[in-house]
Each structure stands twice: as C-alpha cells, then as structure tokens.
Amino acid sequence: MFYFNFRQIVKLIRTLFGQKRSASFKVGDKTSIPLAAVVAALGIPVPMISGRGLGHTGGTLDKLEAIPGYQVEISEQDFIKQVKKDHLAIIGATGNIAPADKKIYALRDVTDTVDSIPLIAGSIMSKKIASGTDALVIDVKTGAGAFMKTLEDSKALARALVDIGKGVGMQFMALITDMNQPLGNAIGNSLEIEESIDLLKGNGPADLEKLIVTIGGYMAVMGDKAKTTAEGQKMCEEVIHNGQALASFEAMVRDQGGDPNVVNDPNGVLPQAKY
C-alpha cells in the first residue's frame, strides 16, 4: 500500500491530467453508461474519460467495446466536436488526455496496488479534470462486490476525492452506495450493455434505475437544469421513459463508430456466449 499526503496527491493529478476541457460532468462505474445518456438528454455535456477492468471487474471501456465497431480512442478534436454535438462521448485516456494515467492504470493491475486509495483517487480525478469537468458527482461503491470492501475504506476514498476536487476548484459531491450484491440483473460486458439499453427503454431493473435517477437528480441541479434534486430526478425519469435518453446513447454509439442497431436488436448485434 502506498501512502501520500493531500499535497502529493494533487501534485500527482496535475501531472497526470495535462490539458483542461470545456465544463461538464462525469461519474464512473457500470451505472455510468446509462446515467451518462440520461444526463446528456437533459442538455448537460458529459465528456467521459473512462478506464478498463481492474481486478475482477470489467471496465466501462470493456463494456462499450462489446458493441461492434465502437471506438474508445478518438482524436482530441473529435472528442470535443462530439460532446458539442451529442452532449456525450465516452473514450479512454490517450496520448494527449490523461496520458500518464493510461500507463499507471495498467501497472496497478500487475503490482498489487489496485486497492491503493491514493492511486485510485489520482486515477479517477485525473481523467475527470482532463475531460474539463468543473462539477462532479462520484458514486463510491462499498461492499463485497467493490474494491472498497468496508464502509471505512469507502469513506476514506470519498474524503480523498472531495479534498482533491476542492483542491482544484471543482464543485464536487461523493455518494457512497451499496455493492454487496450485483447492481441490476446482468454480469458481463455484453449483458450489461443489453441491460443498459433496456433501462434506457424504461424496462430496466428497479434498483439500477433508482440509483441513476438519484445521481442524475444531483447532476441536474449542479448543471443548472433543476432547482431541487426532486425536480432533477423527475426530469431524469421523463427522459428515460420518453426515449430521449435512448436517443442520446444511440447518437454516441453511431458517432463513435459503433453499430447503432444495437439499440433495437442487442441480441443480434452483441457477442453471445457459445453455451
């Protein structure tokens, strides 16, 4: 386990993130794919720089790459252009955007430092700051299915994230949510994409929709689209059930080279298990 003080962590992050982008929002986890589409449908820019799997989990990029043709590596110019057009893009770290994090992220997986709170915080925040985020809601998981197995560790990570966010002048909120059992019903990259699409059609698992609507409500307030979280949550429910969130997801998939037919025929487009 590595130990850093707050000043060291902020210094590390400033080294990692490189250039800053336009104002927007970001969350992480399986939740982030449908949530990003919901928030983008509210008119809030969501430029996401996400990671791959660590330890026992599949990362956001791994899940999206289950969609044939989906490109997680696009140019900086295309990234900005797409966020302006669709209010949404989900990519990985590149040579110009959080370049050091891409290497450190891979090293953590093979040096038994996946659960290092300072390195987790540095990795999360470098990508968020690099994407131009000036307001952020982070969903910190706790429990058997999370890296942070105990509530104590989850609180420590949440505090580190909040301190870093404030240290770089960011509007910030961290929520701690239960991961003692899988969120939703699906486990596996293709299956989780299919479940995300079901949710965006208004047919998703109740627990996943509740979490997305809850976090989305806070983001709507921080994005000046709602005056209260209750109003923001209602707006999130509306874009889920009127098809606007699904349209946001489909536009992102199409513009990043993915097969947009995944929205209407996920079983026919996504890879399937042989047995």
TrEMBL record:
Query: Cellular component terms, GO, for this chain's entry?
Result: cytosol
> According to its UniProt record, which cofactors does this protein need?
K(+)
Q: Where is the Glycosyl transferase family domain?
A: 28-246
Q: Any signal peptide, and if so, which residues? A: none
Q: Which reaction does it catalyse?
A: 2'-deoxyuridine + phosphate = 2-deoxy-alpha-D-ribose 1-phosphate + uracil; uridine + phosphate = alpha-D-ribose 1-phosphate + uracil; thymidine + phosphate = 2-deoxy-alpha-D-ribose 1-phosphate + thymine
GO biological process entries: pyrimidine nucleobase metabolic process
| PROSITE patterns named in the record | THYMID_PHOSPHORYLASE
UniProt keyword list = Glycosyltransferase, Transferase
Q: Which domain of life is it from?
A: Bacteria
The cross-references to Pfam families, in alphabetical order and at most eight, read: Glycos_transf_3 (PF00591)
What the protein does? Catalyzes phosphorolysis of the pyrimidine nucleosides uridine, thymidine and 2'-deoxyuridine with the formation of the corresponding pyrimidine base and ribose-1-phosphate.
Q: How does this polypeptide assemble, per the annotation?
A: Homodimer.
* Protein's recorded name: Pyrimidine-nucleoside phosphorylase
Q: Which organism is it from?
A: Lactobacillus helveticus CIRM-BIA 953
